Structures are given as C-alpha cells and as structure tokens.
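Example record

The entry below shows one chain as it appears in the dataset: sequence first, then structure tokens.
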Amino acid sequence: MKSTSAVLGAWIVVVCWTGAAAAQSGATPTYTNARIVSINTLERTLVIRQADGTQRTVQLDDSVGGFGDVRVGDEVILGLRAQPGWPRVTVITKSTTATPSRGPVSTRPPAPTAAETSPAVADAFARQVAALSADADRVDRLWSAFRTTCDATVRSRYEGGREWFGLWANDVRADLSNGTCRDLYNQIVGLGESVKRGMAGAEDAARRSLSPGDIRDVRLRYSMDWDGWALPAPERQRL
C-alpha cells in the first residue's frame, strides 16, 4: 500500500517543479503514470508504456535538464504538455511507494537496465532458442504427416511461429477417429510440450536482462514467435 505522506510529497515536488514551465508555455501539463521502455539521451526522447498498455514516444522539454537517475524499467510520474510532434515532458520523477509493514516481500527480479543488456546475454538466449528450434523442426515433420493424414485444419495464422502451436490454443480441428492419427497427435503433444517448457524457462530468465523487443527478435529469427508458452498441455488421446 502506498504511504499517504509519500504520495503527497511526490506530487508537491511535481507541482513545484513544473509551475514556472507551465506558466511560461500557457498550457497546463497533464500527469500520467508510466513505465520507461527506452531512453535516447542524444535526442532527449523516451518511449513509455502507459497504464492502458499503449506505448508512445515523448521528448524532454527545454526546461528539463536531463533524465537524472531515471532508468529503463522505472515506474515514473510524467507531466506532459501537448504540442505538434511529440508531447513534451515537463516533469519526470520516479513513482514513490512505501515499504509495506506486513505481507510477503516481492521476489520479482528487477527490471533490466541498459548496462545489463549485453550482447553476451542476447547471444546466450539465442543459442537456447536455436537448440529448441531444432526440436521444433522435428515436431514440424510430425505435424506435416498429421495434417495430411488426419485432415487437420488450423483456424488461426501463426506467422513467425509453428502451426502446431494451435493444438495448445485449441485452434486445430482434425479427424482423430483412427489409431494412427491419435498416435501422431500424442507424439506432437509430447515433443511439443518439451519445447514449450524449454522456451518458457529460457524467456523467464531472459526477461531479467533483455527487453521484450530483443526477445521477440530472437523468437522471429527461429520461427518461435508465440505468447502461449504458459498454456497447459492438450489432453493426450487414448490409443
């Protein structure tokens, strides 16, 4: 729970900081809570993700000296002034939350910073995905036989991924009336579930140091772009 005094203190700082800038511009800034996705120090811009999930690019106002101690992944309060082009940031300050007196301590890993996002981390993740992709290729061959033999159809498109992902998303319709098709189905689920668990673990570790964009670039490179790694396994068929 947020401390009332801490929150009031943060907003007092925000109001005092931006009073002069707002008066000079003739426009009253609006305030929003956001998370920092990326920072460009040369252009004085940053990409933010707002509470509704939308991303936008904003630029520091001339009255703001710099980013201070704000880093990628920080939750911040922004004062934004609308104008042609990118909105101008008249206030940027970290959100203030008080340490709870009771309750469990969060074990969520800290958000990655620019210093932690290194080529070595990205390369290690890419090697893991490449190995899992080789196993996914084996599932592709089983899927090809299953689709032809069992009259399988997929209702959704899995561009950047594999069609058999649809079994986990319940997007596949097939004729499972004979033992051959049920056996193929079970083989796909068995090997595919191993791939799925491997990707879930690799991505969980990668999120501590890589941005969502970096992770998706690797997934696309190996035709493993999917957001369903946490879905439960389909029920096996009786032979």
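Notes for this example: The radius of gyration is 24 Å. Residues 1-26, 97-111 have pLDDT under 50 and may be disordered.
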